[in-house]
UniProtKB/TrEMBL annotation:
Chain positions covered by the region annotation Disordered: 140-165
Keywords: Signal
Positions with biased composition (Basic and acidic residues): 156-165
N-terminal signal peptide: 1-21
Natural source organism: Flavobacterium franklandianum
Protein name: DUF4890 domain-containing protein
Top-rank taxon, per record: Bacteria
Amino acid sequence: MKTTTLFITCLIILISINTISAQYGNNGYGGNGYGNGSRNGMNQMGGMNQRSEPEKPKEIPAEEIVAKYMEDMKPAVGLDELQSIAITNVLVESVNAQGRITKLNLSQEDLMNEYKALAESTDRKINNFLNKDQKDKYLAFKEDIKQPKKKKDKKKGQAPENKEK
């Protein structure tokens, strides 16, 4: 009789420990169970309250933006390494200035005037590093950047016509 009672008692204790462990996330107080209110449970609820305002998108560093731009510009304009480095520095400065301008509380018209002034200043600085031939290529490159979709659409539209002929 003692062994049966001892066996049943041990079985109840094991089941209780298993149930308690499951409620507390199997690792004492860690995991996703009820008992982790001091950690994850409260943080999840608190996180909901803290994240009620939308998260700001991550700002892409100016160096990354300029690097992508320079990948296209360098072969199109025919820049050497020294020109490339100098123009990269000018463009990084310009992108940073755009960020500062954006954060100002200006009217739409004033913002546009600031952007135009910055663009003109940046173009002047870039043109100082270019020779005459490169200046012409730079102007053509800027025009291509402004209207890339239209040219691609025209090329796509012309391709089937050429096949039909």
